[in-house]
Structures are given as structure tokens and as C-alpha cells.
Amino acid sequence: MNKTNTVKINENRLCVTRTELAEMLGCGLATADIVAKNSGARIQIGKRVLISVEKVRSYIDEECNKNECNANDY
Question: Which of 5, 45, 52, 63 could share a disulfide with 41, CB 3.0–4.6 Å?
Fold first, then answer.
């Protein structure tokens, strides 16, 4: 069995890597990439790719609010 990797992330950081974002969200890299792209949080500086934590949080809040409205329709 593979060992689970854990990444310690300082909550005050402005940006994280895709691996750190996946760890924060509890998802895989592919899903983390989709969230980063859809939220407009992806920042590329040279070859380095970082994701804005603030934009991801805002995006997730918006998505949660949309889903709450949709859940009330049923």
C-alpha cells in the first residue's frame, strides 16, 4: 500500500502549488486543476504555476451558494 502524503500548509499564504491545493481540497490533481481554472486563480510566472487561495475560496463560496439555491427548488 502506498504511503499517504501530507502537506502542511500555512493558512496565511496567498498562493499554493497544485499539489498543495489538492491537499487543501481533499481531491486529486485533476480536480484541483479544474477548480483553479474555473475560479481564475491560476497564476503562471515563468514555468512556475501557483494558485490564488483567495480566488479559490471565493469560487467555492459562490458554488456552495448556487447549490443551496438549487437544493431548495426540490
Answer: 52
- CB < 8 Å & 24+ apart, contacts of 3-8: none
**Rounded Cα distance, 20 and 55, in Å:** 15
Residue 33 to residue 35: CA distance in whole angstroms = 5
pLDDT tens digits, one per residue of 19-71: 999 999 999 999 999 999 999 999 999 999 999 999 999 999 999 888 776 65
Closest residue by Cα to residue 29 from 18, 38, 17, 37: 18
In which element (H, E) is residue 71 found?
helix 53-72
Looking at residue 3, its pLDDT comes to 62
In angstroms, the CA 61 to CA 70 distance is: 14
